[in-house]
């Protein structure tokens, strides 16, 4: 069964300054991606994965839940004392337009939060790529030439960039659904989770 966040038709667009600040903390990014990759987990499970104290992890999980990034996952355990969490849904964010936010986004601390949030997200993606390239032998010969990382600077209009985003997302979803169908039919050999991150934005040197 697909995780709940994947069953959502559209990712959540983060358009609230305080919610955006959730993604400005590196540990919260680690916790988010641990839940994204592994499904539901408790603070204890996550603390073991990220190497932090359970109390600290619990604090950050509560902050993430307060802004709807994660939600409780009832039914994961018969022990009522255990609190399980899962990702609420996928997300996307745009820092354009936050300057018009009526409650503080145009203030210096608001601008800092908006500008700072993407950086740990991008570092996470870079870290995944570095981890893969640094442990290529562990993946075997079949995977050695498959990772990719490329960039280009096409001259597009805002409408064309939006169309590109929608087409790329549709392509990734088609691969995901095709893989799900194959796994449901018993084709599971050689499959691994693959980290894919897409971004596109206007750029001036």
From TrEMBL:
Entry keyword annotation includes Flavoprotein: no
GO molecular function: DNA binding
Keywords, alphabetical: DNA-binding
Superkingdom of the source species: Bacteria
Gene3D superfamilies in the cross-refs: Winged helix-like DNA-binding domain superfamily/Winged helix DNA-binding domain (1.10.10.10)
Pfam family, any one: HTH_20
Name the UniProt record assigns to this protein: DNA-binding transcriptional ArsR family regulator
């Amino acid at each position: 069964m697909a995780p709940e966040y994947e069953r959502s038709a559209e990712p959540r667009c983060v358009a609230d300054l305080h919610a955006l600040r959730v993604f400005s903390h590196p540990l919260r990014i680690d916790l988010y991606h641990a839940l994204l990759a592994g499904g539901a987990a408790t603070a204890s499970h996550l603390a073991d994965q990220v190497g932090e104290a359970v109390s600290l992890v619990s604090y950050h999980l509560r902050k993430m839940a307060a802004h709807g990034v994660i939600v409780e996952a009832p039914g994961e355990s018969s022990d009522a004392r255990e609190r399980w969490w899962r990702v609420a849904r996928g997300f996307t964010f745009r820092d354009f337009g936050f300057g018009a936010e009526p409650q503080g986004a145009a203030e210096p601390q608001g601008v800092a939060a908006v500008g700072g949030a993407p950086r740990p997200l991008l570092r996470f993606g870079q870290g995944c790529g570095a981890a893969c390239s640094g442990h290529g032998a562990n993946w075997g010969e079949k995977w050695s030439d498959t990772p990719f990382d490329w960039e280009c600077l096409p001259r597009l209009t805002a409408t064309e960039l939006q169309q590109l985003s929608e087409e790329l997302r549709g392509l990734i979803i088609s691969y995901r659904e095709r893989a799900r169908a194959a796994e449901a039919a018993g084709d599971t050999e050689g499959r691994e989770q693959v980290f894919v991150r897409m971004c596109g934005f206007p750029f001036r040197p």
